Amino acid sequence: MRKLVLLGGGYGNIRILLRLLPNNLPEDVEITLVDRTPFHSLKTEFYALAAGTVSDADVRVQFPQHERLKVANGEIIDIDVKEKMVFLDNGDRISYDDLVIGLGCEDKYHNVPGADEFTYSIQTIAKARETYQSLLGLDPGAIVGIVGAGLSGIELASELHESRPDLRIKLFDRSPRILRDFPERLSNYVKGWFEDHDVEVISNSNITKVEPNLLYNHDQTIEVDAVVWTAGIQPVKTVRKLDVEKDKSGRVIVTQYHHVPANEHIYVVGDCAASTFAPSAYLAEEQAEQIVKVLKAKWNGEDLPEKMPKIKLKGFMGSLGKKEGFAYLADRTVTGKIARLLKSGVLWMYKWHNG
Questions:
Q1: Same domain, 24 and 135
Q2: Which of 170, 229, 232, 239 gives a 20 to 30 Å CA spacing to 105?
Q3: β-strand pairing of 332-336 with 60-62
Q4: Cα separation of 190 and 318, whole Å?
Q5: pLDDT tens digits for range 195-221
Q6: Using the 8-state DSSP alphabet, how is residue 246 labeled?
Q7: Number of C-beta neighbours around residue 197 at 10 A
Q8: Can you point out the beta strands (E) in 82-142?
């Protein structure tokens, strides 16, 4: 029996399962999915969990069930590519013939002193829960600093305002304007929403140090009661220490077939894979679609295409609370209630397709 092992139950590996199960898995192949939790977590919605506007159950989807799918729970501590073995923190060892690494990312603190110790995170469901507990317990009028005004920071700031309008929220943006790489109309809309809802955006910021209840922005100190870090990501430690070629961001360089150049049995999907695109759930799903085609061709003894088709992303969507949002789709900007409905519809469809 050939063994396909999927590391991580994120968007990429879930798409692989969706394409192979129940009827497209060869009879001589079995799958082992390894994840720290017994369910698929909707990471794109962790900001809402941390803000307290959705429940824990709203950001979980059960893994599919199949007679040749085994789910192993545990923390992955090492991958031995020579022995084709994965090691878990509970002592389990899992052998593989083909491996797909989709372990996601963790916060990158850019060597800012105190950032890893004195800030909260929304990178995992456990950390999002912890962040929610901290923010929930703040007194009225408390100051929350959110470092990083990318999509995660924007959505967290807006959702937190909706959940706790009694809090004072400061969003630190390193750029001169929010979403600076996109049309100015989009930036102005998001900026205007924050102004209308008394969320302070601090542009051109540079957080140089974090202390308990204190942020250093350039040479200025700012008092805070809690800080959430959304200012960058990096592959998880297990991937960073993997002895394979990586780009300057620590992501694994892969071929057009999404496997490591020196090992055609190790595939990488999602935030761990080097790409010209910014990491996203949609990108991971598109990579997974191609990995499935490559695996099926190899299992059937077929030649791989000389050139894989280029991945084309449609854009992105973001929310501003539960009633408004913004989107950039096919080079067009959509804002307001329509954009929010679009995002809600995509989320509903995703849950429906994944059971």
A1: no
A2: 170
A3: unpaired
A4: 10
A5: 999 999 999 999 999 999 999 999 899
A6: B
A7: 16
A8: 85-88, 93-95, 98-101, 105-107
Indicate whether 179 and 118 sit together in one domain.
yes
Give me 119's structure tokens.
Answer: 């800030």
Query: For residue 290, what are the contacts with CB-CB under 8 A and spacing of at least 6?
Result: 257, 258, 308, 309, 311
| pLDDT in the model for residue 330 | 85
pLDDT of residue 126: 96
Same domain, 212 and 143: yes
Both 221 and 347 in one domain: the answer is yes
Per-residue pLDDT, 192: 97
CATH of the domain at 218: 3.50.50.100
- Bridge-based pairing of strands 263-268 and 259-260 is antiparallel
Distance CA 203, CA 187 (A): 12
What integer pLDDT is reported at residue 353 of this predicted model?
Answer: 86
Q: Which residues pair with 85 in a beta bridge?
A: 80, 95
- Please tell me the distance from the alpha carbon of residue 39 to that of residue 41, in angstroms, as a whole number: 6
Q: Of 238, 246, 234, which Cα lies nearest the Cα of 99?
A: 238
Rounded Cα distance between 229 and 122, Å, is: 8
Are 115 and 186 in the same domain? yes
Length of the chain, in residues: 355
Contact between 284 and 311 (Cβ < 8 Å): no
The reply to whether 126 falls in a domain is yes
Residue 99 maps to which CATH number?
Answer: 3.50.50.60
Two tokens at 87? Answer: 């090691």
Q: Is the peptide bond before 22 cis (omega within 30 degrees of 0)?
A: yes
Angle between helices 281-299 and 11-20 (to 10 degrees): 40
Do 329 and 185 have their domain in common? yes
- 203 shares a domain with 153: yes
- How many Cα atoms are found within 13 Å in the side-chain-facing hemisphere of 28? 6
Determine the structural domain holding residue 193 and report its residue range: 109-231+315-353
All residue ranges of the chain with pLDDT < 50 are: none
Nearest to 266 by CA among 96, 46, 29, 72: 96
Number of domains within the chain: 2
How much is the pLDDT for 46?
Answer: 98
Question: Is 249 part of a structural domain of the chain?
Answer: yes
Whether 129 and 221 share a structural domain: yes
